Amino acid sequence: MFFDVGIFTQKNYKIRVQIMKTKLLIVLLILIVPNLVNAKTHKKVQAALDYTVPENTCKKPTKFASTKSTGTAPAQSSSGTDVFSGGGTVDNSDTDSYTIRRLEKKEKKWRKCVDKYKAGLLKDMDTLKASAQHGLTQAQADVIIGNMRSIQDVYMTPDGVLDPAMSSTTNAPAVAPKASTATQEN
C-alpha cells in the first residue's frame, strides 16, 4: 500500500476522543442546566416576595367629651323690634381641663405609636429594596414593587390605616402613563 494505515487510526482515535469529550460535556450540561434554571431563590428575595403589610395595632383614642342640648338659644333677628327670637340650640360641653388633658395625652401616645409603626414600614421598604441585590426575575421584581407600593399607600395615610376604597389602587401599574399635554379647543 502506498499510504500509511497508522495515520488513519491515529486520526480516528483523535476524532473518537473529541466525540467522547463532546458527549461528556452534553451529559454534564443536561445534568447542570435544570439546576440552574430551577435554582432556589435567595431567602431574602423569598421573604420580600411573601411580604404583607403588618396590621397597625395602634388604637385611635375616641372623643369622650359629651354634649348636652339645653333648649333653645336666642338668635338675633335681622329686622323688626325684636332683639332676640328663639330657634337655635345651645350645646354645653361637660369637658373640663382634666378630661381635655387626658384626651391630649392619649392622642400623643397614639401618635407616637403610629410614628413607630410608620418607621417600621420604612425599614420594611428598605429591606424590600435590598432584596434586589440578590438578583430578580421580572416577575419577582413586579411582585416586590407591588409590595412596596402597598407600604407606600399605608405610609401616606395620616393614621397608618389604609382605607378599603384606596386598597384597589395598589393594583395599578408601577408607572402611570403620562397624560397628553395637548388640549382641544371647542
SSE layout and pairings?
Blueprint: H1 5-37, H2 43-49, E1 67-76, E2 84-93, H3 97-130, H4 138-155
Antiparallel strand pairs: 1-2
Structure overview:
- By secondary structure, the protein is mostly helical.
- The chain folds into two domains: 7-39; 41-66 and 96-171.
- It is 49% helix and 11% strand.
- It is built from four helices and two strands.
- A two-stranded antiparallel ribbon has the order 1-2.
- A hairpin with a 7-residue loop joins strand 1 (67-76) and strand 2.
- The N and C termini lie far apart (100 Å).
The overall number of domains is 2
Strand order of the largest sheet: 1-2
Stretches with pLDDT under 50, minimum 5 residues? 168-186
Beta-strand fraction estimate = 5-15%
Biggest sheet: strands, sense, closure?
2 strands, antiparallel
Please estimate the helix content. 40-55%
Question: Could you tell me the number of beta strands?
Answer: 2
Number of helices, where a helix is a run of at least 4 consecutive DSSP H or I residues: 4
Mean pLDDT: 74
What is the H/E order? HHEEHH
Radius of gyration: 37 Å
Termini separation comes to 100 Å
